Amino acid sequence: MTAKEFIQKFYKSDALIDSETFKLYLHPEVIVDWHSTKGPIQLDYNGVLDLSNELSRAYVRSKVRISHIIEEDDLVSVRYSHYVKTIENPREEMLLAHFMAIWQIKDNKLYRGYQMSQLL
Questions:
Q1: Distance of alpha carbon 94 from alpha carbon 38, whole angstroms
Q2: Do the beta carbons of residue 40 and residue 119 sit within 8 Å?
Q3: DSSP labels for 29-91?
Q4: Residue 21: partners with Cβ closer than 8 Å, 6 or more residues away
Q5: pLDDT (tens digit, 9 = 90+) per residue, 23-76?
Q6: Which tens digits make up the pLDDT trace of 89-108?
Q7: How many angstroms from the chain centroid is the CA of residue 90?
């Protein structure tokens, strides 16, 4: 599987709201540098899983729509929109945010992530 295929498989999974699935994709030494609307955040393995657990408490479904994806060696750049369905209203899909991420793959796992997000 190429790095690009790996990233596509990751975003098609429910990993963003399912920490058990997320573990299958994470390198034990993962670091994510995220420039969010709240400012810069750095997450390690446990921080990423904590975020996934937090999202799972608020959302029952998660869908990622990738608009751009580019692979170069062990790096994949991906631009996507993240949609969710809330526990309160599971019939309505809501745009959570737009993202731009660069992932480095190591040992067929997410090793380094550089991400920016923009809320609507």
A1: 20
A2: no
A3: EEEEEEEETTEEEEE-HHHHHHHHHHHHHHEEEEEEEEEEEEEETTEEEEEEEEEEEESS-TT
A4: 13, 14, 15
A5: 999 999 999 999 998 899 999 999 999 999 999 999 999 999 999 999 999 999
A6: 999 999 999 999 999 999 99
A7: 21
